[in-house]
Amino acid sequence: MQECTADNSPTLCGPRAGNTTAAVSDAGKSLFAFDAIGTRWEIETPAPLPAEVRERILDRVDRFDAVYSRFRPDSLVSQIAAAPGGGRFVFPDDAIDLFDLYDQLAHLTGGAMDPLVGRDLELLGYDPAYSLTPVPHTDRAAHADARPAWHRDVERHGAMLRTRRPLVIDVGAAGKGYLVDLVSALLQDAGVTRFVVDASGDLRHGGEHPIRIGLEHPTEPGRVIGVANVADAALCASAITRRAWGPRLHHVLDARTGAPVHDTVATWVVAERTDVADALATALFLTPAHRLADSFSFACVRMLADGRTDTFGGFDGTLFAADPT
Amino acid sequence: MSALSRKLTVATMMGACALTAATGCSSTDTESSPPPERSSTVPAREPGKDAQYADGRYEATGEYGSQGSSIGVTLTLNDDVIAQVEVEPHATDPTSLDLQERFADAIPDRVVGRDIDEVHIDRLAGSSHTPEGFNDALGKIKEDAGREHLPYRNEIPSPAGSIPITPR
Q: What gap in Å lies between CA B133 and CA B140, rounded to an integer?
């Protein structure tokens, strides 16, 4: 039995956010860029951010990484994964919203979306060592026999999780969007109302004047299939061509089977909250849009495996239709 | 009840899926209409001379394709003949394409990519960004294995393998 909190986890190996730059774009916007949680971040504001705000942002993303990264051995989720008999693990209070969102989506997708999908990702090769090599089928079958489920194997009281065996929590479906919201809140607290927080394609815009966001073609780099107009809202993208490491090996799994999904190739979701947009961008690979629409307000674009594309929820933007043949 | 060790072939399975997709269309009707009939009769596999399976309902979750999309199947056996097959499409099976499309706002259409330079945009949302560690590892594996088809390029899963059935 272990007892851990986010605050007494082992000393961090130093800040992970790095390669920090502050610059002015061609359009006269101030850009604050850094690498964090394994991806490039850009924060665009009308005026340069004060140093103390930049520090607060870097500190916030580092703390997020220290709790949720399954790629670093000292994180809270790595401790949960390593606890032989489970334990009682206390997350930061703001984890409650994230877990609530996962509760909701696990329910709406009939269990297809589940943060405990982490172990299946590892078995397919998306592990902390980035082996990118699936384990033998027999090992996957053994896991399938005892595949855990979030609602059954994790007892949650607010921000406290109780487990009874090692469980690999992966918040990849909503975590980045969630962190974009936390960073956006820091900007708003600092009085910055016009901004773009762009975590490599999962982004939040603040302000009245819409921006045009290109929907990148999932298999043709450098090309876009359309443009979304977004104002004071979030847009998140997901694609099975991203984080893919072999034929039919990629990061969007059906948590009930542990197998990668194939029907949909890419999704884009516009919603008020970035964590919701991020989570729904994954959920749309697993469940029809109408099933999510009773619980969430959103618009989306999907590209299907055969190249066809559709929209839902009153998508504001343009798709570049192919000439009829 | 003896174990049903015989394999149900994927060909049978795909037939069942197609029928389910066709009859499932009625699910968009008004609530007063009867629930869609999701069962269908399919040609049975030729029973062996030594009929060995107890009559009744058998249930399985099947995986198809080498990476395994899954589907729930309930079989009713009479005298070793499959009398009825009920398929519960999970979200990853091909049927869900049709199921999902019916609820979309827009009729699905093909789109073409346009060069980013031709389209004025402020930001880009899509697939070009992957975690650095991931890309490094992927590059290394490609090097080691000399594989040419990484990363995954929108390959349509091909049915392969068979589905083990276990008694309920």
A: 11
